[in-house]
Amino acid sequence: MTLNTTPPAQQQEQRPGREEQMSPKPEYDTQDYKAASKLQGKVALITGGDSGIGRAVAVHYAREGAQVAFVYLNEDEDAQITTNALDDIGAESLAIKGDLSEPEFCQQVVQKINEKWGKIDILVNNAGEQHPQKDITSISPSQLQQTFASNVFAMFYLTQSALKYMPEGSAIINTTSVTAYKGNPILLDYSATKGAVTAFTRSLAINLAEQNIRVNAVAPGPIWTPLIPSTFDEETVAEFGGDTPMQRPGQPAELGPAYVYLACNDSSYMTGQVLHLNGGIVVNG
């Protein structure tokens, strides 16, 4: 892995962030990953698949034989890199651009995938956003509504639309966060949304158990993705991940295998649970 320590100071002005502007670039694939056709014939839908964790998941799923659709907001260059990576692996793919906080768009996404492949076996709700504020009184109603719309409502809308095309034995995987368990003093609304994602995961797992659809989550700690330099100032970025026991941020590629595990039959007796990939932070949750 490239990042053995914290990253160099850097900041991006636009949100969502752009991966091509990051130094060093996040790693989404590794040469030592050994695929075993664990998702052969499966169709996966991944949100936020243009970069970061979402791209790593898309690539790992493709290596395991899945056909991959991914949704992104407006990062066309990053999305093209994901598409190229999937093409290089030989996977069928579909990139869909739009805003998941709109219920109608979520329905359109699912319809496009159904028209192309006729089913959805794996749904990865991964897209999200964050906006640091040191004072709760600085969080405007519009920011609060936008954060919940992107991180929670979109997850509901897409899951509602996708379920009608998900056969028995399918898997839903949600990206929550270490902040849902240990909190964060400047990410109050973001942490609240991730707590909602964890509760949604547990409740939906119970709700869908009789349909044999498993629902689990991954709670990343500090991971080196475009979200970081586009969210924090240079000083904060230069210290990012340094407070973990491993004293560094994680790479997206280090999370990909966890999403494979939760999507395939290796985790057939696991539902309503959360995997914590956070550099050694103990959260007891």
TrEMBL record:
Composition skew (Basic and acidic residues), residue ranges: 15-31
MF-aspect GO terms: oxidoreductase activity, acting on CH-OH group of donors
PANTHER family named in the record: NADPH-DEPENDENT ALDEHYDE REDUCTASE 1, CHLOROPLASTIC (PTHR48107:SF16), NADPH-DEPENDENT ALDEHYDE REDUCTASE-LIKE PROTEIN, CHLOROPLASTIC-RELATED (PTHR48107)
Pfam families noted in UniProt: adh_short_C2 (PF13561)
Protein name: NAD(P)-dependent dehydrogenase (Short-subunit alcohol dehydrogenase family)
Segments forming a coiled coil: none
Keywords for this protein: Oxidoreductase
Domain of life: Bacteria
PROSITE patterns in alphabetical order: ADH_SHORT (PS00061)
Renumbered residue ranges of the record's region Disordered: 1-31
Listed InterPro entries: NAD(P)-bd_dom_sf, Sc_DH/Rdtase_CS, SDR_fam
Keyword Oxidoreductase carried by entry: yes
Similarity comment: family membership: Belongs to the short-chain dehydrogenases/reductases (SDR) family.
Keyword Oxidoreductase belongs to the record: yes
